[in-house]
Amino acid sequence: MTDSTVRRGVHTVIGVLVLCVMLFPVYWMVNASLQPSGNTLTAGFLPLDPTFAGYRRALSEQGDNLVTSMIIAAGTVVLSLAIATPCAYALSQFRSRWVSAGLLAILISQMIPGIVIANALYTAYERLGLLNSIPGLIVANCSSGIPFAILILRSFMLSLPPSLVEAARVDGAGLFRAFVAIVLPISKNSLITAGLFSFLFSWSDFLFALTLTTKGGVRPVTLGIYQYLGTQVQNWNAVMATAVLSAIPAIVLLVAAQKYIAAGAIGGAVK
Amino acid sequence: MAHATLTRTTEASGPEPARRSRGRRHRGEDLTKLLFVLPAVLAMVALFGYPVVKNLLMSLQDYGLRTFFTGDAPWVGLRNYTTVVTDNLFSQAMVNTALFTVGSIAFQFVIGLGLALFFHRRFPLGGVLRSLLLLPWLLPLIVSSATWRSILEQDSGILNRTLTGIGVIDDPVPWLNSPSVALIAVIGVNIWIGIPFNVTLLYSGLAEIPAELYEAGQLDGATGWRAFWYITWPNLRAVASVLLMLGVVYTIKVLDIILGLTGGGPANATQTLATQSYERSFIDFKFGEGAALSNILIAISFVFAIFYLRSTRRAVDE
Q1: Which residues of chain B are within 8 Å of residue A91 when distances are taken between CB atoms?
Q2: Range of the domain at B12
Q3: Which of B37, B133, B281 sits opposite A90 (nearest CB)?
Q4: Which fold is adopted by the domain A53-270?
Q5: How many whole angstroms separate alpha carbon B318 and alpha carbon B304?
Q6: B134, B267: one domain
Q7: Structural domain includes residue B131
Q8: Using the beta-carbon criterion (under 8 Å), do A120 and B123 form an inter-chain contact?
Q9: Among all residues of chain B, which has the CA nearest to that of A88?
Q10: What is the count of residue pairs from A and B with beta carbons less than 8 Å apart?
Q11: 3-class DSSP state for residue B169?
């Protein structure tokens, strides 16, 4: 008994050490963001004399870009969920020989490199006047949001008992009304998860930001970081502070999706 | 399934008028069902179907800067393909793509498997630690690139400072500035990014292996390495093959990390098919040649995707 307690304690210690190694770069990012400005990285292992100069500079130089990223990501979430949710429901509940074809199409779409989409969208946007525009980037980012949202929402909706919607249908509700009134509220957790991931994909997007904007104006924060890195880096603390600010959604997602995973497990157990 | 049950219920319990209008209502229902999927179908066609077709067409055209002014894109047959394939950089980009893909996946998988096996032994805080491990995978790639740029910085980066400090190396290693080590450094960063995904999938695969198998194996003397070899690995094969194929499909098209870390340099040491395709299209504005390269990229991942689809089908069947 005590022997196994000791062994489990040793495992925990090893686990913590593994995590320290794996997350060291994340720690280093935070540490470097709190250092005084300069073009060399003289930071010690601890930010003993922390300064927020990096964050002040980051917010003044990249504040607009952070807002741009926020708007694009929010737009991507709304558009992706609006398009993906009814489709996920159809793929999970309607019986049709097209279901497996649709799933196959989604899987194949995952192999298509972003650069292929960027090539084609650039030429199309150039004609449509969508280059350097927020709607243009929202639509492009839906290419990662929609397929993922369909897959994750469908896997949840597969577990919905048909009797749920049936009851409403007997009361005379149309298919769409039943979907809005019953399926959507009950899918709340998976909608949140799909939404958070769509947000994160769009927030992290660099390729479309790089290729579908040609001049200032609309500049997501990922592009801002890239331009910081472009030449000799002048202010590491500002670069790292921007990186930290850009990492916040990932950390939020990690906490929120964890909650969803727990909710899903409980839902499955209770049935 | 749902549909069949619904129809039967309405038929059995529905009053007479409802039954008479069933034909029309049925058609209306089919239309509603179509409206459920129509937006997604249109989006998939616009965001995936159109780009693939457009790339195929562009790769057969002289589609360059001039095209944007005159609208002219003369057909040139396979000339774009011969141009990119005979380019001096092509073979290097191919080799780099292969090294990058194989190197990344091999280490991500082996380290991921080791960590998954480790976390599979239950111990206090194991679940929390495992979920925190996901962070590198969730960070925007350009954020990871920026962070690693600062760590790998030649003169003042923490890696070189630590290694010289403890006497492993005498002179700072130019991680990202030397053609001989840049690719290794880039692969290393990509391994770091991919480990969490591998751990998560392999861990879920391990969790599905019934404990009875190990109990039965123990009676037959299968413990430790033998248990891994005869019980764990065979039961993990389906997950592992899916994971490896997904890894290839995702890794082969990686662009953000390389652009953020080295931009394909130094001296083209980290150019891959993806970075080459980007440069030809968006730096040189030779969209025809860029499209030709990206089509080669699609063709390669398609070969692997066939393996992937076959292995998922097998996984589902099992």
Answers
A1: 37
A2: 2-58
A3: B37
A4: MetI-like fold (1.10.3720)
A5: 21
A6: yes
A7: yes
A8: no
A9: B37
A10: 285
A11: coil
Q: What is residue B286's three-state secondary structure?
A: strand
ipTM passes above 0.85? yes
Alpha-carbon distances, residue B68 vs B26, B73, B287 (angstroms): 49, 9, 11
- Residue spans of the domains in chain A: they are 53-270
User: Based on the structure, what is the number of domains in chain B?
Assistant: 2
Mean pLDDT of B136-165: 90
pLDDT digit string (tens) for B154-177?
888 889 888 888 888 888 888 988
Residue among A19, A41, A102 whose CB faces B133 most closely: A19
Q: Are B294 and B204 contained in the same domain?
A: yes
B80: in domain: no
Residue B68 lies in a domain: no
Residues B174 and B256 in one domain: yes
Same domain, B100 and B243: yes
Place of tokens 């686990």: A15
Residue with tokens 């997007």: A205
Helix (H) and strand (E) counts in chain A: 12, 0
Q: Considering only residues A152 and B290, tell me which one the structure prediction assigns the higher pLDDT.
A: B290
Contact B255 A115 (CB under 8 A): yes
pLDDT for B16: 42
Mean pLDDT is lowest, of A70-74, B10-14, B259-263, for: B10-14
pLDDT by residue (tens digit) across B69-114? Answer: 888 888 988 999 999 999 989 999 999 999 999 999 999 999 999 9
For tokens 């080295």, name the residue: B262
Exposed, middle or buried, A217 (CB in 10 Å: 0-12/13-18/19+)?
Answer: exposed
Residues 161-200 of A with CB under 8 A from B: 162, 165-166, 169-170, 174-176, 179, 200
Regarding whether B282 and B137 lie in a shared domain, the answer is yes
Provide the CB-side half-sphere exposure for A78 (13 A, CA).
8
Residue B105 belongs to a domain = yes
Of B37, B143, B312, the CB nearest to A243: B143
User: What's B196's domain CATH number?
Assistant: 1.10.3720.10
CB-CB under 8 Å, A29 with B143? yes
| Euclidean distance between CA atoms A196 and A184, whole angstroms | 16
Nearest chain B residue to A222 by CA distance is B142
